[in-house]
Amino acid sequence: GKSRPFPRISQYCGHIMRPACLGKTTVPQSRYVTWVFREFSHIIPSSGKVLDIPCGFGRHSVWLSEAGYSVISADIDTDRILSFTTISELATPGACSGRVVDANMPLVFVDAPFDIVLIVDFVNLLLLRHVSSWMKSGSLLIYETFANHGENWRSLLPTNLTRSVLEPYFEFVHYESRRCGPIEAEVETIRFVAVR
Q: Nearest Cα to 33, choosing from 54, 13, 59, 10?
């Protein structure tokens, strides 16, 4: 497919990208996600439908909608979705729409199948067990757990569990894992790109 440059976070979305706890610091896209779009541009479709779940403050949703993708932004927080989808609609009409969902519950998306599913800073085994049903053959799954900070290692999945759940449905084109927490915890942070 044809490659095109990806924009930075929209200037008109800057204010909603600054949660009060961050003061004047903006929230950039994940370095991993921007790296993936650069390094794997040969397998990433230049257009199509993207599911960003959970989308949080919409940092990836806005970026991808401005790049020409049709984005479904799903999150449990209604206020976050309304804030950035309203502003995104002014910038790129029809490119980004929100869905209020609880990713801890079984989900069905009428918008499926998606060309790309993006799961960043979220760990949920149920979500991973269902993600393949929202994708078609050749679709990409881009996944990154949250980093190991403080005690959050307690919410990470056991070593190799994520890979074993997804291997029957996906081919991994990039996979990184790093053990974290105390040695006896046997958990890991993960980031990967996989093809359905």
A: 59
CB atoms within 10 A of CB 31: 9
Residues of the chain with pLDDT below 50 are 1-27
- What residues contact 125, with CB distance under 8 A and at least 6 apart? 157, 161, 162, 165
- The H or E element that residue 39 is part of is helix 31-39
In 3D space, the residue among 23, 27, 35, 24 whose CA is nearest the CA of residue 9 turns out to be 27
- Cα 14 to Cα 9: distance, rounded to the nearest angstrom: 7
Q: In whole angstroms, give the CA distance from residue 133 to residue 91.
A: 31
Interatomic CA distance for residues 185 and 127, integer angstroms: 22
Looking at residue 135, what is its pLDDT? 96
State the pLDDT at residue 183.
85
Task: Output the pLDDT for position 122.
Answer: 92
Contact by Cβ (8 Å): 17, 59: yes
Q: Quick one: pLDDT at residue 24?
A: 33
DSSP E strand stretches across the chain: 49-52, 70-75, 96-100, 114-120, 135-144, 171-180, 187-195
